[in-house]
Amino acid sequence: MPPPAEPTPYTVLRSAILALELMPGEGLSERGLESMLNASRTPIRAALMRLANEGLTQRSGRGWQVSPIDLAEVRAVMEYREALEAAAVRLAVARAEPEELAALRDLAEAHRDTDDEETGLRDGSDFHVALARLSRNPFLADGMRDVLTRLSRTRWLEVRTPESRAQARDEHLAIVGAVAGGDADAAVQLAVAHSRGTGDRLLTSLSDERRRLRGRGFSIIESSTAPPPLKAV
Prior knowledge:
By secondary structure, this protein is mainly α. Helix content is 67%, strand content 6%. The strands form two sheets. Strands 1-3-2 form a three-stranded antiparallel beta sheet. Strands 4-5 form a two-stranded parallel sheet.
């Protein structure tokens, strides 16, 4: 087995941002990152630009900052996720093999009794990426992975309960059942309802906790590009 790859400025910064060790809105100095990461300016600048492409950093004057959490962007990403997953699910109904669906069902059932928040979030993300892969369209799978990366910081801030985690698991299993049954319309409807429910709970949680989170130093904004709310399905 080859030795694990050495961490790079990109992987270290990305992990710190996604784990909220570097907070939304926090300033980033290339000079400060040089000493923090023991790296030269060129790979640090490349890492910051790569992270900007993922929506995790952005320019701030002559420097950089961790991208604030933008509630309007979260809404737009959730709309994109809905369209992406609906397309992936419809293709999965036509293309997924029974053993692949059995593995997806096992993934949905994994760690059923765990109370560990990190494990639950990782399982949820893994489920949706695996479901998108069953479409046999790598662009849909890559798009789902990108969506979940952009939402990962906000999901850490969502108020989650054992009941909400159990509900998400049951909804995952219902989607798998509809895909396995060959009912594309039902599978898409279940996936869209799950996505919208997740988005509504997330945005409600962030809005309710906005003042407290700002008091902890988190930058949460509402840009002027907010799309109108969706109607219930």
